[in-house]
Every structure is written in C-alpha cells, then in structure tokens.
Amino acid sequence: MSLHVHCHISGGHFLLDLIAPLRYYIFRKELPVVLKAFVHGDGSLFSQHPELEEATVWVYFHSNNPNFNRVEC
C-alpha cells in the first residue's frame, strides 16, 4: 500500500511561476499536518487497517521550474 499526493507548485499562470519558491516551501512545511489530517479524517479506516499508518507516501511536486518539479518519498 502507498499514498500518492500531488502538489501543484507552478505552471499554468505567470503568478504561480513567480511565487513557486514560496508555494514549494509552504507545501513541504505543512505536508506533515496534511497527512495527520488524512489519518484523523479517515480514522475508522485506519482503525480497521492500522498497517496503513506504515504505508509509503509519495509526494509529487508539479512545476514548470525544474528546481521544484520532483518526487519525494
């Protein structure tokens, strides 16, 4: 089992391109909070399948800037 999270950093609008470094920083900083919210929101699922808490999480950062277009585990 694995969880795949997609984060849109930049591309599609010039304003997103301008603030790509800030968006990347915020997504990376707040991602642990988001993952805790998933577990809290789907508490009954995690209660029935506690092995999901050990699942691999893949995070896809989508950007037209190669510095921010990456995949992290």
Automatic annotation (TrEMBL):
Protein location: Plastid, Chloroplast
Cross-referenced InterPro entries: Staygreen
Gene Ontology terms describing biological process: chlorophyll catabolic process
Ranges of residues in domain Staygreen protein: 1-73
One GO cellular component term: chloroplast
UniProt keyword list: Chloroplast, Plastid, Transit peptide
Major place of residence: plastid
Entry superkingdom: Eukaryota
PANTHER family attached to this UniProt entry: LP06106P, PROTEIN STAY-GREEN 1, CHLOROPLASTIC-RELATED
Similarity comment text for this entry: Belongs to the staygreen family.
Full protein name: Staygreen protein domain-containing protein
Organism the protein comes from: Aegilops tauschii subsp. strangulata
